[in-house]
Amino acid sequence: MISHQTGPSITFPDRISAENDAEQLHNACKLLSTDEETITKILGHRNLQQRYQIRETFHRRYKKDLVHVLCSATKGDYESLIKTLFRGSIQILAHDLYKGLKKPDIVNEIICCCNNNEIIMLKKAYQEVLQEEEPKKASQRTLETDIIKETKPPYEQLLVALLQGKRDEDPFELVEEAIRTRSTSRLINRSQVEKDVEDLYYAGEKRAGKGDSETFIKILTKRSKYHVKEIWDVYLSKYHSTIVEVISKKFSEPFRSGLNTMSVSLSIDIYYLYLSISVAQIIK
């Protein structure tokens, strides 16, 4: 049997017997003292899909939810670990968000780094967390309502704008063309870039006192990542300062960190396209 290495010491088999695993887990929870060693041996060496398979088999055989049974038989950190083992990556982020809504660094690292599709999945997963943690109130709450409750403008407005998931997205064929032709010209509307750069200048550096947060939110949360990259370059060339510097001077926390986290996330995505273009140029 071949095993795959997924980390320094964790492996999982290609094939499992969900029936056998379900039975062993059932027996491990029947003892006066829960057999956590058996639980760890099984669940710790199964991938997420296999754990789902075991959960379905357990429910079919015993008419009970495996996670609920395991959590009832365990406590504290081990119970939390059990729940985490049955969550996918988006579900884990949604749960972290639920627990950390009062912490801007957690909120920024999750919401400000998601693309449109990830935002859709995150909102759905958050609703599932609410149903799990606070079932009586879940129908009256959403990620947006919780964000509005826990934050204040302009930070609130930034997060709500991102949760709308309406950032312009470049057609896949144009991205492929950019790599093939070694040019991003068709990904970018030059006249719109010039207008956005001017609007940001007058909303930031040129404006007395604090910056105009609405303009920064409207542009930086809606334009495509390649368009935003061009804004940065043109702004630097025209006004000899970076967008990040303007944000840092004109806005306070946590809005400032939210904008900058989003900017860094976009720049990482853009890096891979430009890396592909550079590789194509070298090969040619």
UniProtKB/TrEMBL annotation:
<dbReference type="InterPro" id="IPR037104">
    <property type="entry name" value="Annexin_sf"/>
</dbReference>
<dbReference type="GO" id="GO:0005544">
    <property type="term" value="F:calcium-dependent phospholipid binding"/>
</dbReference>
<dbReference type="GO" id="GO:0005886">
    <property type="term" value="C:plasma membrane"/>
</dbReference>
<comment type="similarity">
    <text>Belongs to the annexin family.</text>
</comment>
<dbReference type="InterPro" id="IPR018502">
    <property type="entry name" value="Annexin_repeat"/>
</dbReference>
<dbReference type="GO" id="GO:0005509">
    <property type="term" value="F:calcium ion binding"/>
</dbReference>
<dbReference type="GO" id="GO:0005737">
    <property type="term" value="C:cytoplasm"/>
</dbReference>
<keyword id="KW-0041">Annexin</keyword>
<dbReference type="GO" id="GO:0001786">
    <property type="term" value="F:phosphatidylserine binding"/>
</dbReference>
<dbReference type="Pfam" id="PF00191">
    <property type="entry name" value="Annexin"/>
</dbReference>
<keyword id="KW-0677">Repeat</keyword>
<protein>
    <submittedName>
        <fullName>Annexin</fullName>
    </submittedName>
</protein>
